[in-house]
Amino acid sequence: MFNRSLQDSRSSASDSEGERESTAAVRLEGVSHQYGSTGGRFRSSDERAVTALRDVSLEVPAETVVGLEGPSGSGKSTVLHAVAGLLVPTEGRVELRDTDLAALSDAERTRVRRRHIGIVFQRFHLLPSLSARANVALPLVQAGVPRADRRERATALLEAVGLGDRTTHLPGELSGGERQRVAIARALSTDPDVVVADEPTGELDTATGADVLELLTDVGRDRAVLVASHDEATLDVADRVVTLCDGRVEDVR
């Protein structure tokens, strides 16, 4: 299965980066975020500000898939962006490996994201001029991994997600499901502690989406996975589901 196929390939990333802890979790404590606010704090007089999150606290344990559900505008994507270090919340803490991402500089947060967080976008975000293998290897280029190791790692990951015969194909030569598999392989290239996925089956048909969900379930056996979705089939594979409404945690089941 996926994890067994991937086991040997994980050593190249670990050897290049050094040993890391075997378990990790991401935690949000009292996180609020306001888009368009000034001065980094809430200002009720600022009519342009939009409150996306209100005092959100949740935890994603290692080896666990946590689903985020809620209507559009409920704050799902903002939670993912906060966990991925793509934004600094207006208030609260976002902890990864006991480190508050909000307390880091932009450069430090980027380094943490590149090493410890994998991101799967709904619309794939693959570079059209690069082959599947080159797209998967891109985060390893940024991490300074030697070329031969990058190639070996990317090839092993594509084989693990069932695309061993598509390594040299461009994204335009791949189906939607294949492109999403490339995106998942890319998210795993640095062997991250946490994977965040935003509507990973939103662009896929039912059968292809089911294959991607099986892959994400396998991924969750080795690391923390946080997935935002409107799709019930996607949420069904989660070990825990957090419901958001108007930027607040409404329910956890």
Characterise this structure.
- With 253 residues, this protein is α/β, with parallel strands linked by helices.
- It is 35% helix and 23% strand.
- The protein has helices spanning 2-6, 10-17, 76-83, 106-116, 132-142, 147-160, 176-187, 206-219, 232-236, and strands at residues 26-35, 50-60, 65-69, 91-96, 99-100, 117-120, 194-198, 224-228, 240-245, 248-252.
- The strands form two sheets. A six-stranded mixed beta sheet has the order 6-7-8-3-9-10. The chain has a four-stranded antiparallel beta sheet with strand order 2-1-4-5, with helices on one face.
- A hairpin with a 2-residue loop joins strand 9 (240-245) and strand 10.
- Helix 5 (132-142) packs across helix 6 (147-160).
Condensed summary:
This protein is α/β, with parallel strands linked by helices and 253 residues long. Helices cover 35% and strands 23% of the residues.
Oligomer: single chain
> What proportion of the residues is helical, as a percent range?
25-40%
CATH H-level superfamily title:
P-loop containing nucleotide triphosphate hydrolases
| Gross morphology | globular
Order of strands, main sheet, comes to 6-7-8-3-9-10
Share of residues in strands: 15-25%
| Helix-strand string | HHEEEHEEHEHHHEHEHEE
SSE layout and pairings?
Elements: H1 2-6, H2 10-17, E1 26-35, E2 50-60, E3 65-69, H3 76-83, E4 91-96, E5 99-100, H4 106-116, E6 117-120, H5 132-142, H6 147-160, H7 176-187, E7 194-198, H8 206-219, E8 224-228, H9 232-236, E9 240-245, E10 248-252
Parallel strand pairs: 3-8, 3-9, 6-7, 7-8
Antiparallel strand pairs: 1-2, 1-4, 4-5, 9-10
Helix pairs in contact: 5-6, 5-7, 6-7, 7-8
